[in-house]
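PROTEIN DESIGN WORKSHEET
SECTION A - STRUCTURE
LENGTH: 258
TOKENS:
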């Protein structure tokens, strides 16, 4: 069971410009929360604070009751896995080796992977439909195949909290569904997932709650039906949109082109 994630009055200033201003929300165990907002709203910056790539100028992020700033690196890696929007791999690792790296936080400092680690990696790759790519260099993978391998690495990490930055951006429809189903299963097993997405309609369908950022602040948060209104979207994105309803009742955002 996850300890959950708390973002508490988070402030970040980069280059003299306030990027996040007193941002607060929670991702509880068993939840998938969508983090939405236009380009430059502060979404990726927030994920980088959670992983300690950026030190905030105020406020804090907690895993359970523990501030991430006080977690040892290996403990943080066991608690939080991230699927970034783009992954740079400087060495031609095989796809299977890339996925197996997810087990590193669970291994002794100078230890090697066990048979169980390898089996976990193989199972995660098969689950994402890329088991046949295990021996292929990551340089030979398509963007979508590499994204699936990075997602499988996060699954193998067995974290309490999963951060996903546009996880379906390079994926076809079938693999997009596979990833989103796996995220929902992760939450159903007690994990906490925070998903950054520009696909508002998709986020409305898979997320329990949405957090909408605008100019570094939380404009709205709550169920999709409350957050995705014409007025709120006009404020956040400076566009007019119609909000329709899918057969299952989920909101569908249709921007007006005129």
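SECTION B - SEQUENCE
RESIDUE ASSIGNMENT:
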């Amino acid at each position: 069971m996850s300890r959950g994630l708390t973002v508490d009055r988070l402030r970040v200033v980069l280059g003299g410009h306030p990027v996040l201003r007193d941002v607060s929300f929670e991702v509880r165990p068993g939840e998938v929360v969508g983090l939405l907002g236009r380009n430059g709203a502060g979404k990726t910056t927030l994920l980088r604070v959670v992983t300690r790539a950026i030190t905030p100028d105020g406020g804090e992020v907690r895993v359970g009751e523990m501030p991430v700033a006080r977690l040892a690196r290996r403990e943080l890696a066991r608690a939080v896995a991230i699927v970034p929007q783009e992954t740079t791999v400087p060495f031609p690792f095989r796809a299977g080796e890339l996925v197996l790296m997810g087990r590193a936080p669970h291994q002794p400092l100078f230890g090697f992977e066990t048979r169980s680690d390898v089996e976990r990696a193989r199972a995660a790759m098969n689950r994402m439909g890329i088991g046949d790519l295990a021996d292929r260099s990551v340089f030979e993978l398509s963007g979508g195949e590499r994204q699936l391998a990075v997602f499988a690495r996060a699954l193998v990490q067995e974290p309490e909290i999963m951060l996903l930055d546009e996880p379906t951006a390079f994926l076809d429809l079938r693999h997009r569904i596979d990833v989103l189903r796996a995220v929902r299963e992760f939450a159903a097993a007690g994990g906490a997932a925070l998903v950054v997405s520009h696909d508002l309609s998709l986020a409305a369908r898979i997320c329990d709650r949405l957090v909408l950022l605008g100019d570094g602040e939380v404009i709205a948060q709550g169920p999709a039906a409350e957050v995705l209104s014409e007025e709120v979207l006009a404020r956040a994105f400076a566009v007019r949109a119609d909000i329709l309803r899918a057969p299952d009742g989920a909101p569908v955002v249709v921007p007006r082109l005129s």
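SECTION C - NOTES
The chain has nine helices and twelve strands.
The chain has one domain: 5-90+158-255.
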